[in-house]
Amino acid sequence: MSLTILNALVAVVAAIAFAALNAAYLVWAERRGAGRIQRRPGPNVNGPLGLLQPPCDGVKLMAKQLMIPGGADKALFMVAPVLAMAPAIMSFVTIPFSDTIVAHSMNIGVLMIFAFASLGGMAILFAGWGSRNKYGVMASVRAVSQNISYEVPMLITVITVVMMTGTMDLKGLVAAQAGGFWNWNLMPSLSSPLMPVSFLIFFICALAETNRAPFDLGEAESELVAGFHTEYGSMGFGLFFMGEYANIVIGASLITILFLGGWDCPLGLFPGVWWFLFKIYVLIFSFIWIRWTFPRTTIYGLLNLSWKILIPISLFNLLLTAGLLKVF
Amino acid sequence: MGAYFSEIFLGLKSLVIGLIITFKEFFKPVVTVPYPYKTIKMSEKYRGHIELIEDEEGNPKCISCGACQRACPSGCISLASKSVEYEAMVKGEMKTKKKKVLTKYDLNFTTCSLCGQCVENCNFGAVTFSKDYNLASDRKEDFHFDLLKRLKERNS
């Protein structure tokens, strides 16, 4: 009994360490990537290739004073950054990196991750409301309406995938796609010919759910100062930042598990954790690539995209898949 | 309905084109210079503050005529000279002649507007623009240049 508790503890700590390490070094990767795309080197002064930049940033943020603005709601103000980071780390616990590497396997893993992902919207709402700042409130209103609108097509797409595989267990989802890239959910199949479209919808929604550019309306610097974290300094801001990057890793992991066959090799050879990591880092690179390519959308463009294009198409796909699953 | 789908496809197409452009840029070499560690060479036409030109012996070409001083609209050049006698062969016999030698050539760069009138008015090609641009300081005195001293430092 005590051994299993110890095992679980080690696994959870490892999951947290993985999340924190990724969050820290994705900031570095993002800045280097942005630099390359803009034909400049990016951070390259601290350490080889600028690899010591994240610890330096961390020390800088921790050395700063945490300021709480005058009329702020102290409890909400303090709880918001933690709420941004904690669910992101919690979701890592159930993500399987390979057949054996998983902190805690659950038969409703998909459901749990989406439940925790919804808490991210709460964090933004608390941050904007609690800091009593008009820009913060406006940004939270935007971010929450965005999160709600993009959760709908995202979940409809997930329902399509779950209907096809018949399981909500993340391991089971990967097992159903094993044996080469032609078995992955990404590929169109007889029962669901529109699967690549589903993948695209899920990808767009993942970008929007993690508040990434071009959907980062919650922190539109041009009109809202810094958005919901206007009043946050020091590690409060740091936690929001790390939470964003941890969410990116979760988004990439989910796309990998749901559509790209998890740790399965494209040609059916040597499946293992390295394929999973390779896939998520390719996806993360594409997130960074997209961020530094497209300008920010407007709030109307954002909501129109969701309600007029993504939701109808994903609903149509759901109905089509449901019908064809009965036929074949 | 057709317009709805064509709009989506055209939008997606334009997004893909944008992504391809940034992907190509990603692998091109960087165009910036890490400034404090490396500096770029200024172009031939760059006009910094003025600088004296030396002759073959390393002395200033300037004959102290003062044309630059008179031409300067901001009055930021001040020069001084002294007469020296020297022996020279003129039509086969040694004669003692006099010439002016520059003893001071100060540029007050704080009021200089870099118009270049001094360079244009010099008939002896003795003044030119330097290529210096790292000229930041919190002291005004740092911009009173002793060009004669700079010439000597350059030669040594």
Description:
The complex is a heterodimer of chains A (328) and B (156). Chain A is built from eleven helices and no strands. Chain A has 328 residues and is mostly helical. In chain A, helix 7 packs antiparallel against helix 9. The N and C termini of chain A lie far apart (46 Å). The model of chain A has no long low-confidence stretch (mean pLDDT 83). Chain B is built from four helices and five strands, in the order αβαββαββα. Chain B has helices spanning 2-26, 67-71, 117-121, 147-155; strands spanning 50-52, 77-90, 93-108, 127-129, 144-146. In chain B, the strands form two sheets. Chain B has a three-stranded antiparallel sheet. A two-stranded antiparallel sheet of chain B has the order 1-4. The longest helix of chain B is centred in the N-terminal third of the chain and has 25 residues, at 2-26. Chain B starts with a helix and ends with a helix.
Low-confidence stretches of chain B: none
Specify which chain pair forms the largest interface: A-B, 15 and 16 residues
Shape of chain A: globular
- Largest sheet: number of strands, sense, barrel closure of chain A: none
What is the succession of H and E elements of chain B? HEHEEHEEH
Distance between the termini of chain B: 81 Å
| Helix-strand pattern of chain A | HHHHHHHHHHH
Assembly level: heterodimer
**Order of the strands making up the biggest sheet of chain B:** 2-3-5
Chain-wise SSE layout:
The complex is a heterodimer of chains A (328) and B (156).
Chain A: H1 2-37, H2 53-63, H3 74-94, H4 109-130, H5 134-165, H6 170-176, H7 195-209, H8 221-224, H9 234-259, H10 273-291, H11 299-327
Chain B: H1 2-26, E1 50-52, H2 67-71, E2 77-90, E3 93-108, H3 117-121, E4 127-129, E5 144-146, H4 147-155
Antiparallel strand pairs in B: 1-4, 2-3, 3-5
Keywords, separated by commas or semicolons:
heterodimer; A: about 325 residues; mainly alpha; 11 helices; about 0% strand; globular; B: about 160 residues; alpha+beta; two-stranded antiparallel sheet; 5 strands; elongated
